């Protein structure tokens, strides 16, 4: 005789041990979706290395939440407020962060591909890693005091919507007037980046 497994009681607990929300749900991501639907903010919660793929977190408020190493593939984070959140080393392939507001968030070595940041607002956010090339920063609505970070040389590069993304062979460059960012490393251009790219493409020196 077959049996149907009842949903478990899932508790969303902050780092201090306080229960922010609980409900019967098949997974933590569904419990979070239910909490958002009841206008409950997710504050000071550790969601690192959780499977949050294809989660529906739109319109949510996340404050001081760690998504480090989490699987956010296909997750909907549109129109969310993200403050002090850590997305380092998480997978954000095909996730949507459109129309969201992110403040003091870290995206260090996160995996991006077809990640939608359309009309998002970024304030004091940090990005690093080769996959940053896959983010179309031109679609951002606001970028304030945010930057690309080179952890090897402890250097940073201002993040602006007018950054140029250029692919040359196996290399992927993000450039502005002063610097270019390739494979997580920042190098100075001094307005010579286009000449550098042309030399790579044609093998000729640009005068």
What's the SSE blueprint?
Layout: E1 8-13, E2 19-25, H1 28-37, E3 42-43, E4 61-63, E5 81-83, E6 101-103, E7 106-108, E8 121-123, E9 126-128, E10 142-144, E11 147-150, E12 155-158, E13 164-168, E14 171-175, E15 179-182, E16 185-188, H2 193-202
Parallel strand pairs: 3-4, 4-5, 5-6, 6-8, 7-9, 8-10, 9-11
Antiparallel strand pairs: 1-2, 11-12, 13-14, 14-15, 15-16
Detailed description of the structure:
The chain is mainly β and 207 residues long. It contains two helices and 16 strands. The strands form four sheets. Strands 3-4-5-6-8-10 form a six-stranded parallel beta sheet. The protein is elongated, with a radius of gyration of 20 Å. It starts with 7 loop residues before the first strand and ends in a 5-residue tail after the last helix.
User: Beta-strand level of the residues, as a percent range?
Assistant: 25-35%
| CATH-assigned fold name | Pectate Lyase C-like
Largest sheet: 6 strands, parallel
Q: Kindly report the average pLDDT value.
A: 86
The end-to-end span amounts to 81 Å
How many structural domains does the protein architecture include? Answer: 1
Structural class: mainly beta
State the low-pLDDT regions, or none.
Answer: 1-5, 201-207
């Amino acid at each position: 005789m077959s049996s149907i497994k009842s949903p478990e009681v899932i508790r969303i607990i902050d780092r201090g041990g306080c229960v922010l929300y609980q409900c019967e749900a098949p997974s933590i991501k569904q419990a979070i979706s239910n909490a958002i639907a009841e206008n409950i903010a997710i504050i000071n919660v550790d969601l690192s290395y959780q499977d949050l793929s294809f989660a529906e977190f739109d319109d949510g408020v996340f404050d001081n939440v760690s998504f480090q190493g989490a699987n956010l593939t296909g997750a909907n984070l549109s129109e969310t407020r993200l403050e002090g959140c850590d997305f380092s080393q998480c997978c954000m392939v095909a996730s949507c962060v459109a129309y969201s507001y992110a403040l003091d968030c870290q995206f260090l070595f996160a995996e991006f591909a077809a990640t939608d940041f359309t009309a998002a607002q970024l304030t004091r956010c940090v990005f690093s890693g080769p996959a940053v090339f896959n983010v179309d920063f031109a679609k951002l609505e606001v970028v304030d005091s945010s930057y690309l970070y080179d952890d090897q040389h402890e250097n940073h590069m201002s993040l602006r919507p007018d950054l140029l993304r250029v692919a040359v062979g196996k290399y992927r460059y993000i450039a502005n007037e002063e610097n270019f960012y390739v494979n997580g490393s920042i190098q100075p251009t001094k307005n010579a980046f286009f000449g550098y790219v042309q030399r790579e493409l044609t093998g000729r020196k640009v005068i």
